[in-house]
Write a structure and sequence with these properties.
about 375 residues; mainly alpha; MetI-like fold; 2 domains; two-stranded antiparallel sheet; 18 helices; globular
């Protein structure tokens, strides 16, 4: 297994390089880059150019310009690091050695982390427009997406496993048919559509039937006296804000996991060892929880690692927009619209890395849970 894990880790590097390379190439052909957007802004507005990437600012002397001075264009390109050759920008995207102190010994400079930059050394650079590093922005938006992801992940797993077991035990009953109808309707209903209905009927608007959904955000931090609330009141307020987007987020997740649990339990119930256990006098409850459930949950448990990693970076643009939540989904969308390439590539790199690591942990969990699986035998 160790040799298999090492090989998979080594394969991750060319995979990430390929993803970054394709993204970098696509970015070069996308029209309306940061320089074009700033040129349009300067032609249409006077005053001071807002800070961009590193805190630099340009003064256009209060003049509305039809054609920009070439010096301004060069300064814009320098701000966005577009004055460098294409090959250098590509290498800086991957990994780049840039020593800051030339009087130090060579080996000391090489092993100094501050002298390296690039995505492969987990340095994502600064946003073009927000005057913050990409990592700072991701950490800033992470609590919203992580709140939705963590709670929805564990809630979905718990509810679907319990519901799937009950459906398998009561197979072809009225409860099985009714629950299947409910989860399939939920699966076919887009989360943002349900969110719109909730806002219309239960939202803060004057036309709502009942005002159960708060205005925006995950807390009532702007309400006077919020700081004086007790911890219990703040927790209730947090759950109140989280309830509606969480329902919309999970509505399509129940069907797949519930039916997978049910089918896995039904398959185990038909096997010979179940009949043998019953013949030995074990009760239905003991057979279900000690034998059937243990073996039927293997496909569900093996999907846990990748889901556990992904839940921290879960983001949904439409749901966040509907309920005015400032999370990773909205950040990624705004970055694409504004051509904020460091944020776009930073999010893509992190999502890709989490996906690769999660897939590796999923494969390893198969071996740890089911001893009949062996990487060495499969290689042979």
């Amino acid at each position: 297994m160790i040799s298999y894990i090492i090989r998979r880790l080594l394969f991750m590097l060319p995979t990430l390089v390929g993803i970054l390379t394709i993204t970098f190439i696509v970015i070069q052909f996308v029209p309306g880059g940061p320089v074009d957007q700033m040129k349009s802004l300067l032609r249409g507005h006077s005053g001071v150019l807002t800070e961009a990437g590193g805190g630099a600012a340009l003064d256009v002397s209060g003049r509305k310009q039809e054609e920009l001075d070439p010096k301004f264009l060069e300064q814009l390109k320098k701000i966005y690091h577009l004055d460098r050759p294409l090959w250098e920008r590509y290498l800086r995207t991957l990994v780049w050695y840039s020593p800051k102190q030339n009087d130090r010994p060579f080996l000391e400079k090489v092993f100094d982390y501050d002298n390296w930059e690039g995505f492969l050394v987990f340095k994502f650079g600064d946003s073009f427009y927000r005057n913050k590093s990409v990592l700072e922005l991701i950490v800033e938006k992470l609590p919203v997406s992580a709140s939705l992801g963590v709670i929805s992940f564990f809630t979905t797993y718990i509810v679907c496993i319990i519901l799937g077991v009950f459906k398998a035990v009561r197979h072809e009953s009225t409860f099985d048919a009714a629950s299947s109808l409910v989860v399939l309707v939920g699966y076919s209903t887009p989360g943002f559509v349900l969110g719109i209905f909730l806002i219309v009927f239960l939202g803060p608007g004057d036309g709502a039937v009942a005002h159960l959904i708060p205005l925006a955000g995950l807390t009532s931090a702007g309400v006077p006296g919020y700081e004086d609330w007790s911890a219990w009141e703040k927790l209730i307020d947090y759950l109140h804000h989280l309830a509606a987007p969480l329902v919309c987020f999970m509505v399509g997740s129940f069907a797949t996991l519930t039916m997978l649990t049910k089918n896995a339990v039904l398959e185990e119930m038909r096997k010979q060892y179940v009949l043998t256990a019953k013949a030995k006098g074990l009760s239905e409850r003991a057979v279900l929880f000690k034998h059937i459930l243990k073996n039927s949950l293997i496909p569900l448990v093996t999907g846990f690692p990748i889901g556990f990693l992904a839940m921290f970076f879960t983001g949904s643009l439409l749901i966040e927009q509907i309920f005015t939540l400032d999370g990773l989904g909205l950040l990624s969308y705004q970055a694409v619209i504004q051509r904020d390439y460091p944020i776009v590539m930073g999010n893509l790199f992190i999502f890709s890395l989490m996906g690769l690591v999660g897939q590796l942990l999923t494969d390893v969990s198969y071996v740890l849970i089911d001893r009949r699986i062996s990487f060495e035998e499969s290689q042979g």
